[in-house]
């Protein structure tokens, strides 16, 4: 009876072992991209960090487990860059940074109310004829 049970369970055990190996390989493949993204965020290289984030999003099997945290950190970094550009009076850089942040987190209140409102208020008023 034990031998029969073992024979019936062996295919299941084999499948579980293969699944565990595949998951480990997937995590190992993501690790360098995650480390690179961390470095790019720390260095302030937001365009490269955005590219790395997109690669993590389009992972081979499933996205990285902490993808949402990276998304939020990257959007916040773009938002800070936009605020600094606005303080310098660089409206084009501020709008670009806001667009990048909004692309990452379109529903974030700081992106729909905060910097966007300041950009609109700081735009020169159109002269009426």
Architecture per CATH nomenclature, i.e. the level-2 architecture: Alpha Horseshoe
Top CATH class: Mainly Alpha
Stretches where pLDDT falls below 50 for ≥5 residues?
21-27, 125-129
Q: What characteristic shape results from the CA principal axes?
A: elongated
Q: Number of helical runs? A: 5
Question: Please, how many domains?
Answer: 1
- What is the name of the CATH topology? Serine Threonine Protein Phosphatase 5, Tetratricopeptide repeat
The first-to-last residue Cα distance is 95 Å
Q: What summary fits the major beta sheet? A: none
Order of helices and strands: HHHHH
Q: What is the residue-averaged pLDDT?
A: 76
The percent range for helix content is over 70%
- How much beta, percentage-wise? under 5%
How would you characterize the overall build of this protein?
The protein is mainly alpha-helical. The chain has one domain (25-122): Serine Threonine Protein Phosphatase 5, Tetratricopeptide repeat, CATH 1.25.40. 81% of the residues lie in helices and 0% in strands. It has helices spanning 2-43, 46-57, 67-88, 91-104, 109-122. The model is unreliable at 21-27 and 125-129 (pLDDT under 50).
In brief, what are we looking at here?
This is Lipoprotein. It is built from five helices and no strands.
Which short descriptors sum up this protein?
129 residues, single chain
